[in-house]
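in:
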């Protein structure tokens, strides 16, 4: 090879981004508080968002997944593993704990998140309109939906007065829900007992407590730990024989009675789109943090009939989807 040709080729190679020189496609680190088993629908939505932005997993982008399976103490090390690889971008999903772990692990790698809290109050961004740092994404405001879910539950059982809410005290979303739901219960003149659970054993203990108390209805709070143990919680509610409302449609599809959610799959899709835009050169600091515009109220009539419960016609009229 002639020296001039070699030098020209070398110069062209050095002009390429390091990401392109070192690997055939950028790698996205996917960090989730949840488990792979309970995240199939939202993972598919994230990949669909990437495709909208022009990226195909296994084609011109690769995704490296890490799941904490509800164990919050695993998140810092999982985030550090991805940063050390290194990855071109971090998708920190499954609640505020994941996003905070990612933010603590890097101030330079772009982060897209799905959280249920106020990202400004969490210190993830300077403002919703202009995040200003290396992180942006979506807040599904799940922590603020407890009062709405409690109101729907009261409509289902208007003569009931003894309600229970299960929340996780170890997450920002859980702590806020406990306070907001208590306040809402006072306004509705309901006797609400808040039970705390942050792992499988504590979930079982909460239901054991319910079995010895007089409970008319249950609200399962918004938290990744409840997603991880979704099937078990739905089964425990069936044994308890009380009407219950959950955070996501997935619970109702698994046999739960009702859910009210901010279209979690669409949130993951939008974050996938943001990830693609950032890989193309957009800066997280300039991408506004998005909030949900659509909420879904789902009722499982099959479950209601199996439990011997009659769904009020007024509540059926409000449902966006009825599973029969």
């Amino acid at each position: 090879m002639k020296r001039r040709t070699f030098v020209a080729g070398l110069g062209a190679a050095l002009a390429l981004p390091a990401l392109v020189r070192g690997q055939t496609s950028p790698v996205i680190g996917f960090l989730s508080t949840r488990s792979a088993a309970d995240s199939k629908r939202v993972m598919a939505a994230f990949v669909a968002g990437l495709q909208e932005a022009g990226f195909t997993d296994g084609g011109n982008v690769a995704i490296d997944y890490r799941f904490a399976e509800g164990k919050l103490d695993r998140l810092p090390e999982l985030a550090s593993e991805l940063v050390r690889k290194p990855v071109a971008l971090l998708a920190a999903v499954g609640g505020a704990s994941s996003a905070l772990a990612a933010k603590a692990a890097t101030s330079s790698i772009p982060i897209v998140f799905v959280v249920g809290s106020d990202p400004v109050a969490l210190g993830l961004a300077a403002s919703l309109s202009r995040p200003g740092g290396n992180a942006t994404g979506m807040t599904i405001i799940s922590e603020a939906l407890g009062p709405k879910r409690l109101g729907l539950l009261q409509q289902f059982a208007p003569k009931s007065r003894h309600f229970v809410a299960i929340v996780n005290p170890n997450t920002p979303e859980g702590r806020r829900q406990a306070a907001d739901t208590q306040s809402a219960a006072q306004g509705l003149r309901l006797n609400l007992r808040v039970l705390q659970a942050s792992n499988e054993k504590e979930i079982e203990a909460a239901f054991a407590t319910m079995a010895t108390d007089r409970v008319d209805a249950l609200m399962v709070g918004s938290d990744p730990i409840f997603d991880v143990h979704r099937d078990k919680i739905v089964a425990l509610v069936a044994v308890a024989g009380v009407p219950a409302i959950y955070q996501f449609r997935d619970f109702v599809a698994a046999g739960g009675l009702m859910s009210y959610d901010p279209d979690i799959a669409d949130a993951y899709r939008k974050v996938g789109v943001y990830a693609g835009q950032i890989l193309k050169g957009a800066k997280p600091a300039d991408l506004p943090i998005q909030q949900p515009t659509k909420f879904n109220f789902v009722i499982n009539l099959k479950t209601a009939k199996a439990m011997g419960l009659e769904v009020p016609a007024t509540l059926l009229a409000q449902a966006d989807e009825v599973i029969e």
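note: The domain at 143-261+296-323 is CATH 3.40.50.2300 (Rossmann fold).
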